Amino acid sequence: MQETFIHKPDNLVISGAMPAVPININVASGVIERGTLLSFVSIDPATNVVTVTPIDLTSANAEEKLPFCIAQHRIDASKTASRGTGWATGMFNSRAVILPAGVTVSDVYLACRKVNLFLNDATPNPVA
């Protein structure tokens, strides 16, 4: 059965000036929500698809502390590994990016900047 999607603007992507470039990703387990900051786990040498997990600044694995991409949509891998897409680069609303409990944008800002994930504060214009 094909999954269906409903469009609900969430202001995650905030600028068309810099393209938000999508990439294929794999999630081994769990549910990833749109906007989750993800880190690199491994790459499948046959397909070149990267397996990702939510960033974890407390992990002993250095790669899991570094941002790799932002989930483009919800990915449900609760029953089996699932493929989806993430943004490898782009400008995102820091208020809409999903981070682990206890982690703030300032904790990951510079690391995100180094991989071309730009996190900016975007508040709605109260006059518009």
What does the model show?
With 128 residues, this protein is mainly beta. 8% of the residues lie in helices and 34% in strands. It is built from one helix and eight strands. The longest helix has 10 residues, at 105-114. The protein is globular, with a radius of gyration of 15 Å.
Q: Which overall shape is indicated by the principal axes computed on the Cα atoms?
A: globular
Number of strands: 8
Largest sheet: 5 strands, mixed, barrel
Q: Helix count, per DSSP?
A: 1
Low-confidence stretches: none
Distance N terminus to C terminus? 41 Å
Mean pLDDT: 90
What radius of gyration results from the CA coordinates?
15 Å
Oligomer: single chain
Query: In terms of structural class, how would the helical and strand content be classed?
Result: mainly beta
Beta-strand residue percentage:
25-35%
Order of helices and strands: EEEEEEEHE
Q: Could you list some keywords that capture this structure?
A:
mainly beta; single chain; globular; two-stranded antiparallel ribbon; 128 residues
